[in-house]
């Protein structure tokens, strides 16, 4: 899949994500996913966690994508800087902690719950490391940690993509599919991100030796 194909796929999945988000505007405690969470949704802390996570996710998804635009980075560095700062604050202070709380009460039992909690911790960790790296002037480290962070951000899309594929191509029970995608939705992304970073390290090393 070429660059244009990736962009089209990203925009399409983001559009679907937006439709899902709009289901919760105005606030509705019984619609869509929340229909399965009636045992916990009445608790204020869960409501705060759920809606802050859902409402911030679209902005985080788009802000993160902007960070990888070379045009914005070089022509409008101040936009890159402040969009990145908002991304970090939104992940570290809002969406990741909220996702951890949601993960504790996740559907699919301990298998899915442990996955969502670990995802939230790693998301927080890589995003914070990206911020600390750039504060120290470590541009390469900052870029690598941002790649890892955004790979986890994209799990909001890939989890649903994996779920759609498995639901329509297998006879696996829906709860088992949910347990599978709770892990595959972010592990696959993280593996691809690590391979990408490693590949570029090798290419950079070969280029330097050639010079």
Structure description:
This protein has one domain. The chain is built from 8 helices and no strands. It has helices at 3-22, 44-66, 70-75, 77-104, 109-135, 139-153, 155-169, 174-210. Helix 1 runs antiparallel to helix 2, helix 2 (44-66) packs antiparallel against helix 4 and helix 4 runs antiparallel to helix 5 (109-135). The radius of gyration is 18 Å and the shape is globular.
Quick overview:
The protein has one domain (37-210). Helices cover 81% and strands 0% of the residues. It has helices at 3-22, 44-66, 70-75, 77-104, 109-135, 139-153, 155-169, 174-210.
Break the fold down into its secondary structure elements and pairings.
Blueprint: H1 3-22, H2 44-66, H3 70-75, H4 77-104, H5 109-135, H6 139-153, H7 155-169, H8 174-210
Features:
211 residues, mainly alpha, 8 helices, 81% helix, globular
Task: Specify the structural class.
Answer: mainly alpha
Total beta strands = 0
Tally of alpha and pi helices = 8
N-to-C CA distance: 32 Å
- Describe the sheet with the most strands: none
Domains counted in the coordinates: how many? Answer: 1
What's the helical proportion of residues? Answer: over 70%
Can you tell me the residue ranges where pLDDT is under 50 for at least 5 consecutive residues? none
